[in-house]
Amino acid sequence: MNDEKLDALLKRALPEPDPAATARMRARLAAEIARRPMPGGGTSFWQRILPAGCGALGMAAICAFWLVHTKPAPVAESSADVLSVVSALPFSEDNL
User: Fold this and answer.
1) Which end of the chain is more exposed for a tag (fewer CB within 10 A), N or C?
2) Phi and psi (nearest 5°) for 77?
3) Is the pLDDT of residue 25 over 70?
4) Which residues of 5-20 are buried (b: 16+ CB within 10 A; e: fewer)?
5) Position with higher pLDDT, 51 vs 78
6) What is the rounded distance in angstroms from the CA atom of residue 35 to the CA atom of residue 41?
7) Can you give 9-76 as a three-state secondary structure string?
8) CA distance linking residue 94 with residue 25, whole number of Å
9) Range in 30-39, 54-63, 66-75 the model is least confident about
C-alpha cells in the first residue's frame, strides 16, 4: 500500500480534529520547545575537554583507582573457605 492510499484511508476512517484544539496543542508544544535549552549550549568543562564515549573509560579509571587505593577488609578465618557460601545452601542428596 503506497502513501497516498494510506493517507486517503486514514482521512476517511479517522474523524477530523477540532481546529481550536489543534491550535492549543501546537501553542503548548511551541512554548515547551522554546523553554528547552539549545543543544550544545551550556556544556560543562568536562564535556568540552573529553570526547563523547569517554564515560566508560573514565568509570574504568575511577574503579581502578578505587581498587588500588583501598585496603581490603580483614578476612575472618571462617570466611576464608571459598566453598563455605555454597555449603550453606539447602541442597538435598537427591538428584532432580
Assistant:
1) C
2) -60, -35
3) yes
4) eeeeeeeeeeeeeeee
5) 51
6) 13
7) HHHHHCCCCCHHHHHHHHHHHHHHHHHCCCCCCCCCHHHHHCCCCCHHHHHHHHHHHHHHHCCCCCCC
8) 66
9) 66-75
User: In this structure, how many other beta carbons lie within 10 angstroms of the beta carbon of residue 28?
Assistant: 10
Cβ neighbors of 84 (< 8 A, separation 6 or more) are 78
Q: Looking at residues 49-77, what average pLDDT do you find?
A: 77
Average pLDDT, the chain: 77
Mean pLDDT lowest for which of 4-13, 56-65, 79-88?
79-88
Three cell numbers at 76? 575472618
Structural contact between residues 78 and 84, judged by C-beta atoms closer than 8 angstroms: yes
Residue bearing cell 583507582: 65
Q: What's the full length of the chain, in residues?
A: 96
